[in-house]
Amino acid sequence: MAKSPPWGLRWRSSTLFILSTVGIGLFTDIFLYSLVIPILPFILQDRIALPADQIQSAVSGLLAAYAAAQVLFAFPAGVITDRLSARRTPFLVGLVALLAGTLTLGLGQSVAVLAIARVLQGLSAAVVWTVGFVLVLDTVGPDNLGKTNGTIFAFISTGGLVAPVLGGVVYQKSGYGGIFGMSFAILAVDFVMRLLLIEKKVAAQWQPPSSSPSSTVDRDNDREHQGERATGPSEDASEDEPLLGRKEELGSFKIPEDRYHWAEGVPLLYCFQNPRLLIAQLLALIQATLFGAFDATVPTEAQELFGFNSLNAGLLFIALVLPYLLLGAVAGWAVDRYGTKPISVVGFGYLVPVLVLLHWVRPGGTTQIIIYCVFLALCGVGLGIIGSISIVESSQVVRLYEMANPGLFGANGPYAQLYGIGSVVFSLGLTIGPLISGGLKDRIGYGNMNIVAAASCAVTAVLCYVYVGGKPKVLKKN
Prior knowledge:
Blueprint: H1 9-12, H2 15-36, H3 40-47, H4 52-83, H5 88-107, H6 111-140, H7 145-196, H8 200-203, H9 211-230, H10 242-251, H11 268-271, H12 275-306, H13 310-338, H14 340-357, H15 366-385, H16 389-404, H17 415-444, H18 446-467, H19 473-477
């Protein structure tokens, strides 16, 4: 006797609910990460009674523990997820790790215990970001990946924006109890949504059997369409030989059998011989490095120029994040519509002059503060444009390898592994961004530091033109 469908099957497996659950999961991770950072020094000082001269090194160590755990666990989380039939299980495991880490952080009475808490939170981040984006791909497919991820990135960025402000206010009014009470309230909502989630492939077993043949045909046609899109407009064949050109293009992604051995067990590693995939990871690294640079330098520069306290400096990030929030979905739609090459070139090229503008920020009153906010908003526009390019480009390249080598990557494909590697790269960028920008700011000044950032974006824009979406026609002819 067939099992009856679960309660609420339609809405629990709907695209809106699945994407909302992933968005809330990523928002929770970002929110709790940003919420804890401003109060770590006070935890060490008031609860642990750590000497003042040891607090900075302890804070740095706790931040490093989080980043190291995310780097260490992201790829294994991807490998495990790709071998499981259901994505929800590791998604729930990640939340359990976050719950345990937050509880340990709230009760820990030593630096060692707090370090364990940060490792658990880093483990959770590795799992949530890896599995979350695989669920997005499973739900919307590659053709809608840009606008979907653009919307999600824009939404979760608000977590990093409001958390430090809320953390400061709640800590002043309610102390640690208020901070961790708010944390567990958000975790409770996240847990319920993840528990209710039903993946589309799981829900398919309760669909009428008559829909299967047509859906299979639709999937086959969709895969062919994905192959055409993934090669990009610059790689289209001529009108006389469109099919021949596409077959030849797909043939370039065929992995020779005599080369399987060195990537046996993890064939995704072979794909990284393709410069498109390497550049896609570079884009994630540059993007995260820019985020880390803004996080590290905007508060200190605002303090030096305008005498801002931590709350006022935190409010400056509204100017940076709001354009990103508003443009994320639009930029993602443009990536889906026009391809990764033109949007990446425009995005990184646009960032060059607006980053240079930060060289002319000066001390002063309201006028200078407004000018600084305008410059930060212009940078936020650029960050919004480049937000979803890396994940879309890398997904397209791996999709071509999967189509050219049927069965090589397993039934579920290698996408959790791919996003695990992407998570490692992004975490690396968030780690080195503050270090590089802080060092440059101390040595050559804030304005010159941003000129260096602009130069890196200029080089990246050139690399995007050459490699992202495939070689342009002018280079192919030459």
